[in-house]
Amino acid sequence: MQHIETVTVGSGGAASITFSAIPADYTDLVIKLSLRTTTADTGWNDIFLRPNSATTNLTARALYGTGSAAASFSVSDIRFYANGGGSTASTFANSAIYIPNYASSSAKSVSIDSVSENNSTTAIQAILAGLWNQTTAITSLEIVSSSGNLAEFSSASLYGVLAGSDGIVAVS
Amino acid sequence: MTNEVVTKLVVDLSKPEGHPERVQSIPLTEEELAQREADRIAAEAAEAERLQAEADLAALKASAKAKLISGVPLTEAEAGVLVI
Known about the structure:
The complex is a heterodimer of chains A (172) and B (84). Chain A has 172 residues and is mostly beta strands. Chain A has strands at 2-8, 16-20, 28-35, 44-51, 58-65, 70-75, 79-83, 93-100, 108-115, 125-132, 141-145, 155-161. Chain A has an 8-stranded antiparallel β-sheet, with no helix packed on it. In chain B, 57% of the residues lie in helices and 13% in strands. In chain B, α1 (30-70) packs across α2. The longest helix of chain B has 41 residues, at 30-70. Chain B is elongated. Chains A and B meet through β1, β2, β4 and β6 of A and β1 and α1 of B.
């Protein structure tokens, strides 16, 4: 897995983080995120992942637990989570996103593991399977806050994964 | 009174590392601001729907449990949350 770029939100926050002009040099992409919003919410806020700025042809299914319940849902977007700005101070949600064959001419699948952090019972842990039903290569990825801004010190790191000579096994 | 300028952080990977335009903070366009408002409304609706579904499921489970204890027949929905 090769590090491509890490970006950290500065003072004042940002509505979104976009990695644009993603080179087609890799087999898969990985994004690691540490996110918090500027809302007053004490739990979490939804964050949308938008390949090539798409807001359509997106679906996802999720399994999640909140400390008080465990359930599932289906949505017509690809989402994960950030700590709300009212959660325990200086804590951030952690998420990992895996996008195999992002430059292929097939529909794109997305796997997400996302957890918020909070010094209370109000937190979420979720695994999500997403689909962008488009055959164009992914050349940009937007990480968009659904409420408020992404708070200062939120960060996103993009990595590329190369397949081995057999075309299957990831080697770096 | 000043209007808040909402910005997005854009990493242009076509620019080499260290290039001043590789990472930029850019104000949202009118279209992006409209999408942001739509996102906020949709997220609030989705969260309300999720909370309602969670409450409905908890109520169904409580009802099923109470009926089991008292020997009262369960509805199909109540049986459905107990038998997988």
